[in-house]
Amino acid sequence: MLDIQKIRAEFPILSQTVNGKPLVYFDNGATSQKPQIVIDAIAKYYQEINANIHRGVHTLSQLATDAYEISRSKVQHHINAKFAHEVLFTSGTTHGINLVTNGFASILKPGDEVIVSSLEHHSNIVPWQMLCEKTGAVLRVIPMNEDGELIMEAYEALLSEKTKVVTVNHISNALGIINPVKYMIEKAHAVGAAVLIDGAQAVPHLKPDVQDLDCDFYAFSGHKMCGPTGTGILYGKEAWLNKLPPYQGGGEMIKEVTFEKTTYADLPHKFEAGTPNIAGGIVLGTAIDYLNSVGFENIQKQEEELLAHATKSLLEIEGLKIYGTGKNKASVVSFNIDGIHPYDIGSIIDKLGIAVRTGHHCAQPIMNFFCIPGTIRASFSFYNTKEEIDLMVEAVKKAKTMLS
Amino acid sequence: MTIKEIQNEIIDEFSMFDDWMQRYEYIIELGKSMPLIKEEYKTDNNLIKGCQSKVWLQGEQTDDKIVFTADSDAILTKGIIAILIRTFSNQKAKDILEADTAFIDEIGLKEHLSATRANGLVSMIKNIKMYALAFNAKNN
Q1: Which cofactor does it need (chain A) (predicted)?
Q2: Contact with chain B for residue A347, Cβ under 8 A
Q3: Within this chain, do residues A252 and A337 fall inside the same structural domain, yes or no?
Q4: Which of A128, A183, A298, B40 has the highest Cβ tally under 10 A?
Q5: What is the pLDDT of residues B8-20, one digit of tens each?
Q6: HSE-CB for B71 with a 13 A CA cutoff
Q7: pLDDT tens digit string along A104-139?
Q8: Which residue, of A276, A292, A308, is where some domain finishes?
Q9: Of the CATH numbers 1.10.10.60, 3.90.1010.10, 3.20.20.140, 3.10.20.600, which one belongs to the domain with range B3-139?
Q10: Which runs of E-coded beta strand occur in A118-159?
């Protein structure tokens, strides 16, 4: 059992008041809060070992380089990648996806097909659309059902020898649905397609095993998993990363430069041009250590309890509808109240100290599917409590009374 | 009344409220009672798509003044629209161009006019000014 009060004390931001009320932070899907150990590690880096990496022979540069590479291998072990050089530091999930779509621009041919799911965040739709525009490839979409689950029969019907890439999120940001990615990867591989998994919403809740999943790419952000903003990881299978051209040119990513020809560095440096977010990369490792010290089993257990409690309590409100009712779900509740705009509820409960996300959650196709302008999304983390959920439910009831 | 006089009148009205709940309840009432934009004006051309809520705005010149009608799918947004329409509608283009919306801060609704809210109101004010600019240019 987690000692939630002890954990909460590790997150300084959670003890503040907002609009005169104790903060109830349920916007974890947008970004998670940071424990003191992560905040301290950022300062410690700048106070003690700040230097550019992979360049200098001096001691500080060596210390910074070591810390950065130790963090890379922490990520490698965390996601069970075969090699450390399959782990690329990025600025976030979006960066990772764009790195891959950029690489595929030289691989796809007109008439090739890219399959995305209807549950995607805009950042896993738009880069692929841009890629299709550039190459003449065709974008195909896996439909979903009323419960917000992808329809596997339709997915399998879309797969063919034309399919070159399948991209899908591990967990939907707008609805919290956990997709059957392992199954989907197996099916895609059967027709020879590569698979990218957008793990942005998954990594705060679970430990992905990229070898077990057998995905070709797995992209995620650090800031949703207690790490600093502007950090992220793109995992890619060695063979794919060798095949893809570099994303950006610059320092660090070269082997030899002459005006006639430049040869590129080996993995992972080929994809890490320029001075990276060194502090961020190192502290992402600290965040991963922290989450592992809490334990993902504990995290999941706590979040499952929160989800069950929130679902039950919210459904007691008359006229409230939850979107994403599939049975495999992360701790996210996306809902609306009949006849009331989500913006109105969000604005009023903010005044009561409750931080939720309202709007389309950068997933407009999902909102269009349900014919709604948006939802109110409460996304829970292991540091949240049932008491906080009760405060939210009371606030929603109050908002409903005011708005009806 | 001038825009400034109307804004001062609104500040006076809001000074009667003790807390945010009373202010919001008033805004909700305004949103409910505001005359809607004519259905024919609820076109894509008049639509301002905020990330959060939608706003429709239509401006028409009658004599030397501009009459605005507007609507939103969110009631709080609509209530604030009612306040903005009350200040800017039936005013001369030149006066609209010279006016500001600082009074919104004074009545405690500042957060609804911040760009991060993305409710369409910031763009609505911009469009009100654009109408005024266009009519002003036409008149000169």
Answers
A1: pyridoxal 5'-phosphate
A2: yes
A3: no
A4: A128
A5: 999 999 999 989 9
A6: 13
A7: 999 999 999 999 999 999 999 999 999 999 999 999
A8: A292
A9: 3.90.1010.10
A10: 138-142
